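RECORD TYPE: protein structure
NAME: Annexin
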Amino acid sequence: MSTLTVPPLLSSPRDDAMHLHRAFKGFGSDKSAVINILAHRDAAQRALIQHEYRALYAEDLPRRLSSELSGNLETALLLWMHDPPGRDAMIVRQALRKDLLNLETATEVICSRTSSQIQVFKQHYYAKYGVHLEHDIELRASGDHKKLLLAYVSTPRYEGREVDRVMAEKDARALYKAGEKRWGTDEKTFIRVFCERSAAHLTAVDSAYHGMYGKCLKKAIKNETSGQFEHALKTILQCSENPAKHFAKLLRKAMKGLGTNDSALIRVIVTRTEIDMQYIKAEYRKEYKKTLNDAVNSETSGHYRTFLLALLGPNQ
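PREDICTED:
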């Protein structure tokens, strides 16, 4: 089958919809053409293509993609078709389903998002599923992990870079008193500081903690907490300091060892492509002395590999 060559940015959403429809015709779809179009369109363009496709063919494009594709390519492309907040809502909803419960994934997404991103995806969550995100967290999570997630999704946080150093030192002292200084851990203090403070402030707290007590906050979290509560605190801290490094580490973990964790690989690449992928690629290269593209290339195959590499862009 000959592949349709589509200029990445020159065709209109209507043209794209028609090219896609043509790619679906005949025996087996022209997957290269589908990837060539959709991997090079941003969220707004993808929404317009879906609108045009429905208008032209009275058919839902994601549904058609689902019937034409399979496996990891289908999973990745269908996730890509959403806009970022709708996608986050869908990932978290699936992770909080009773039959598919995956608290690690729900925690990873919630605790790596900014306060404003969470507010928007909460609206999508309610609009799409008719239930508040807090309700599902209440049902599925437990203990301090639940308390932290509920506080994190409902507390607005300052997103600027200004920091009150005195307050940061005060928080560092409070965390030391709540953790390493006492027998047992006062989780309430950790929840309050981690859920109420800005990313820049938490970075300053970590620096103050290190200056005052000779060790980093991450080590204190590791020593004083465990399970999903520890995972949530570490994610918040790492994303406040360097989100790109955090996601580079998740990608490395997904591809390390025997076999690949494709759901994690897809989730991170698809959700970060339109946010901070160039920084993640730079961090990956710095940390692991190999480009992210090369790592993905050696861990995946076929059209699935082609699609992920198209999202990653140039190999650098």
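COMMENT: The two ends are 32 Å apart (CA to CA).
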